[in-house]
Amino acid sequence: MRILSLAVLPLVGSALASSSTRPPLGYHRTNKTAPACRAVPGGKDWPSTDLWAALNKTVDGRLLQPAPPGAVCHPTQPTYSSAACTAVQANWTDEFFHSGNPVSVEWNNWTNDTCLPDASLPCSGEGYPVYVVNATTPQHVQAAVRFAHTNNVRLIVKNSGHDYVGRSSAPYSLSIWVHYMKNATLHPTSFSPTNCKNVTIPGAALTAGAGTQMLDAYALTHTINHTVIGGNGRTVALGGFITGAGHSILAPQYGLATDSVLEMEVVTPGGDILTLNECQNTDLFWAMRGGGGSTFGVLTSVTMTLIPSPEIMGMTFWIGTGADNTQAFDMLAWVVSQFPDLADAGISGYPIVFNTVKNFIDGSDTFIKGIIGKLIVPNTSNATLLEGKMHDIFSHVNATWPKMFGHYNTTYYPDFQAWYAENYDPSPTGHENLMSSRLLDRPALTNDLDALKLALAKFSAAGQATVYIVSGPAVHAAKPRGGGNSVLPVWRRTYVHATATIVYPSNNVSISDAAKTFTGFFSAAMKDLAPNTGAYMNEASKYETDWQTTFWGDNYHRLLDIKRKVDPDDVFWCTPCVGSERWAEEADGSLCRV
Ligand SMILES: Cc1cc2nc3c(=O)[nH]c(=O)nc-3n(C[C@H](O)[C@H](O)[C@H](O)COP(=O)(O)OP(=O)(O)OC[C@H]3O[C@@H](n4cnc5c(N)ncnc54)[C@H](O)[C@@H]3O)c2cc1C
Ligand SMILES: *[C@@H]1O[C@H](CO)[C@@H](O)[C@H](O)[C@H]1NC(C)=O
Ligand SMILES: *[C@@H]1O[C@H](CO)[C@@H](O)[C@H](O)[C@H]1NC(C)=O
Ligand SMILES: *[C@@H]1O[C@H](CO)[C@@H](O)[C@H](O)[C@H]1NC(C)=O
Ligand SMILES: *[C@@H]1O[C@H](CO)[C@@H](O)[C@H](O)[C@H]1NC(C)=O
Ligand SMILES: *[C@@H]1O[C@H](CO)[C@@H](O)[C@H](O)[C@H]1NC(C)=O
Ligand SMILES: *[C@@H]1O[C@H](CO)[C@@H](O)[C@H](O)[C@H]1NC(C)=O
Ligand SMILES: *[C@@H]1O[C@H](CO)[C@@H](O)[C@H](O)[C@H]1NC(C)=O
Ligand SMILES: *[C@@H]1O[C@H](CO)[C@@H](O)[C@H](O)[C@H]1NC(C)=O
Ligand SMILES: *[C@@H]1O[C@H](CO)[C@@H](O)[C@H](O)[C@H]1NC(C)=O
Ligand SMILES: *[C@@H]1O[C@H](CO)[C@@H](O)[C@H](O)[C@H]1NC(C)=O
Ligand SMILES: *[C@@H]1O[C@H](CO)[C@@H](O)[C@H](O)[C@H]1NC(C)=O
Ligand SMILES: *[C@@H]1O[C@H](CO)[C@@H](O)[C@H](O)[C@H]1NC(C)=O
Questions:
Q1: Residue limits of the FAD-binding PCMH-type domain (predicted)?
Q2: Taking a C-beta distance cutoff of 8 angstroms, is the pair 231, 206 a contact?
Q3: Ligand 13: which residues within 6 Å by Cβ?
């Protein structure tokens, strides 16, 4: 979330709307002799020190047993140091700190608050992995996967640690840390997929390690005047982004990031290193492009087609009104209903609805409601399209509703990198954060403005909600290599990715329970508006009901078949993830079959 200051948990009571009644896909424990739970330290099947030492040899001495980063603030911990504590506290809101640490993640609760950098709170470290392989080669990954499989150890994958649904940390686990898999190679003119003799794909491409982060991918591709279709954060890494779909401000004009994938290298749950493309391992190639992270294997590198870096006409706009203006959401619903037409005309962007926030526009001590955002049109130096559309929107708003104020202006950028350098997502991290989201298609956005108004008002009740225009014509028409990929099919008719975020204080059970309740309330408000769409799994609620359909729709059953085939023993497990139904985390954090 950006631009606005952090929302605080609103203390208004709101009933949870009824959740879906579709029965869950159930699985029964068939093999009664397999261990009921993954090993836990101290348990009789936890691998011996010698076994861990042997793994360490196999991975070239790259096995780590990291202390939780916050331990430096706790006098009872061996790494305690008041100077180090000051530095960690100062860096706790910094995305680079968490992505550069072997075990730290961006949102506190995903380590169950078990060692925050605050001496007044407990520090057991139990929410963190026990061991970490600092992998730089597919062979390191392979060794870790085989070790976890053989020894019944819970396995996770951490990259940048950005995950909003908590998949990149887990108690009692071995973590494969892929952050340093950053080797990247440009193919300036064309790419031929491996063992695909009949195919040469024209145009520039990038092969990059799965730990490659957005800012590095953009910088490297800029050296040949191209760009990757990437996200707006700086430290988001390709691993989670590509496996989850990858939306981009360039997606409405060029397709989703995962639509641009030409080839992947993965380590399977069985420990094989495979190359996936349209000619070989095609089922896994399909599943790894949208089926989600840490489920079908570990992505070690990915090849993506690039686009010539487009010049960008950018716009900043806002429309606001006093928080007491009862017509605020009539205006907001109408403005948002224009987004499908804007996207079809070539416009994309990151608008955010704000609901009863301190007046950040003139700094006065009043409260306002409204919408603010950045829009772009790629491949043009002509501002007429953006200015014309926004002029029409302002005219309608001015003529229809009193007491609105607003502003827009345009700025030209010679290439995408120039736009990104000024407009990347600078969101702070290191707090408690729950998200809820929904993808909205044209009917949801235009059929019933009263319903849209109600949904937006509820959905932004925590202070703000994104209504990002990150899908549109090119996503709808995309022809991913190999005949398709596994992203939620609803992307092919989506215009707006709407997210609501709850930020709340640490270590307060009743507040965190309330935060969870609000997440359900937000999801329900959007489901009422758009019952037949779904949500983007990388930016969603961990507690989404009916998550199989919500995140994967009709692709779920094929994804599940592939998961069962490639990972019959559930070496990879996370939630909400494909095929996770036959295990559950117990109250103490151990992972057991259901
Ligand atoms: C500030 C910010 C901005 C964002 N902007 C965008 C955006 O513009 N567009 C967008 O689509 N999303 C965006 N996201 C969401 C982002 O896509 C997800 O958070 C994604 O999960 C991050 O992937 P990661 O690998 O960096 O993070 P991690 O948290 O390390 O990993 C996320 C998931 O992927 C798995 N994973 C990671 N690497 C691999 C791998 N090599 N092989 C297999 N599994 C792997 C992890 O196990 C976990 O399940 C943003 C998030 C933040 C916090
Ligand atoms: C059941 O699990 C045990 C122990 O993991 C394993 O040895 C055996 O092969 C499994 N049986 C089947 C039928 O999968
Ligand atoms: C792994 O081996 C390296 C090099 O010998 C050593 O420095 C490191 O401490 C070992 N890791 C663990 C967890 O013992
Ligand atoms: C914390 O941030 C400072 C700069 O703000 C940096 O110099 C320092 O290395 C960081 N420390 C850690 C542990 O990341
Ligand atoms: C992980 O490996 C990278 C690359 O070799 C190295 O630079 C880094 O220091 C290692 N991190 C830790 C914590 O060992
Ligand atoms: C990096 O990529 C180049 C070119 O693809 C390759 O030759 C090299 O072996 C890779 N290095 C590592 C460490 O993976
Ligand atoms: C990129 O564009 C710049 C400016 O147009 C030009 O000078 C440069 O030669 C181009 N570089 C490549 C690799 O095409
Ligand atoms: C190339 O050949 C493979 C089989 O080797 C086939 O599956 C694929 O569809 C072919 N691709 C094209 C573009 O003809
Ligand atoms: C910009 O686009 C408009 C509308 O297409 C066109 O009328 C105008 O001539 C263009 N301006 C320039 C400078 O090309
Ligand atoms: C709408 O009103 C605002 C402020 O009241 C004004 O700045 C703007 O020019 C008007 N826009 C149009 C298109 O009428
Ligand atoms: C116009 O847009 C630029 C870039 O988005 C921004 O920095 C600038 O402050 C804007 N001007 C006004 C008057 O808001
Ligand atoms: C925080 O994480 C713990 C442990 O996974 C979980 O039990 C709890 O429900 C989570 N709380 C929230 C608000 O997500
Ligand atoms: C989270 O931590 C609490 C103690 O603060 C503990 O009681 C609970 O079992 C932990 N939950 C998980 C899922 O580990």
A1: 125-309
A2: no
A3: 112, 171, 585, 587-589
Residue 564 within a domain: no
Q: Tokens 């009917």 map to which residue?
A: 443
| Ligand 5 environment, Cβ below 6 A | 64, 102, 134, 136, 180
Is residue 382 within 6 Å of ligand 9 at its C-beta?
A: yes
Give the distance (Å) from ligand 3 centre to CA of residue 64.
7
Q: How far apart are CA 492 and CA 499, in angstroms?
A: 18
* 196 C-alpha to ligand 8 centroid (Å): 7
Distance (Å, whole) CA 446 – CA 403? 24
Q: Do residues 34 and 69 make contact, with C-beta atoms less than 8 angstroms apart?
A: no
Residue 538 C-alpha to ligand 4 middle, in angstroms? 28
Residues for the chain: how many in total? Answer: 594
> What per-residue confidence (pLDDT) applies to 34?
75
Number of domains in the chain: 3
C-alpha dihedral, 92 to 541 to 441 to 293, nearest 10°: 80
pLDDT at 7: 36
Q: For residue 355, what are the β-bridge partners?
A: 369
* Beta bridge mates, 275: 265
pLDDT at position 4: 37
Q: Which amino acid is at 571?
A: V
Q: Phi first, then psi: what are they for 254, rounded to 5°? A: -135, -5
- Give the β-pairing of 173-177 and 131-134: parallel
Distance 142 CA to ligand 1 centre (A): 21
The residue with tokens 């005047």 is: 225
What ligand is nearest to the CA atom of residue 189? 7
Picking from 376, 395, 414, the residue at the C-terminal end of a domain is 414
Atom of ligand 7 nearest to the CA of 224: 13
Range of the domain at 99: 49-180
| Residues 380 and 264 placed together within one structural domain of the fold | no
Task: Check residue 24 and give its pLDDT.
Answer: 31
Flag residues of the chain having pLDDT under 70.
Answer: 1-33
For residues 167 and 163, give the distance between their C-alpha atoms in angstroms, rounded to a whole number. Answer: 6
Please, which residues have CB within 8 angstroms of residue 276's CB and are 6 or more apart in sequence? 263, 264, 265, 266, 282, 284, 285, 288
Ligand 12 lined by 516 (C-beta under 6 Å) = yes
Cα–Cα nearest to 505, from 125, 109, 169, 166: 109
Report which protein residue has its CA nearest ligand 3's atom 5: 61
Q: How far is the CA of 116 from the centre of ligand 10 (A)?
A: 48
Alpha helical stretches, state H, 14-113 = 49-58, 82-91, 95-99
